[in-house]
Amino acid sequence: MLLWLAALCVAAYSVQAMLPRIAPDTVRAAQQTAGQVDGLVGGWRNVTPQEAATVIGQRANDEAFMVLDVRTPGEFSEGHLQGARNIDFTSPEFRDRVRSLNRNRTYLVYCRSGNRSGKALEVFRELGFTSILHMDGGTLAWNAAGLPLEK
Question: Is Signal found in the keyword set (predicted)?
Fold first, then answer.
């Protein structure tokens, strides 16, 4: 058994040594070209409010990126993240509105605390969305970080 394991390790090392090395800048450029962000390749990732603010700043004019606020319209009107669109998670039309979104975009999803947006992610998964950023702590964490909201 030990000999078999050693042979497997040598084989794995040999295969890895034969693979071409790809520069990190090349990988990052490919991700950005594909409408993705650092650390997110066709998947899901939680981000801090500071990370969310950075992504929003970098991708403000990017058609392949959208910020979604899943709070109620009343909460949204009191203040929201820059460029956010409101799709109320508690609305009976929530699933249909999400279904109408472009699945090829990257979405930054948030709510007040992270609870509703966490539940909303399940709908996104069920509907086949593959590139989602979820802001941990919602607008409560955003405000605690001293970041501005727009009205």
Answer: yes
- What stretches of 34-114 show up as alpha helix (H) in DSSP? 49-59, 73-78, 94-99
How many domains does one find in the chain?
1
For residue 83, give its domain range. 37-144
Model pLDDT for residues 20-69, shown as the tens digit of each residue: 443 444 334 333 433 444 444 457 899 999 999 999 999 999 999 999 99
With a CB cutoff of 8 Å and minimum separation 6, the contacts of 141 are 48, 49, 114, 135
Catalytically active residues are 111
Question: pLDDT tens-digit profile of 109-130?
Answer: 999 999 999 999 999 999 999 9
Q: Sign of the CA dihedral 86, 92, 93, 94?
A: positive
User: Is residue 84 within 8 Å of 65, Cβ to Cβ?
Assistant: no
CATH at 91? 3.40.250.10
The answer to whether the predicted template modeling score (pTM) of the entire model surpasses 0.70 is yes
In a domain, 5, yes or no: no
Q: Is residue 130 assigned to a domain?
A: yes
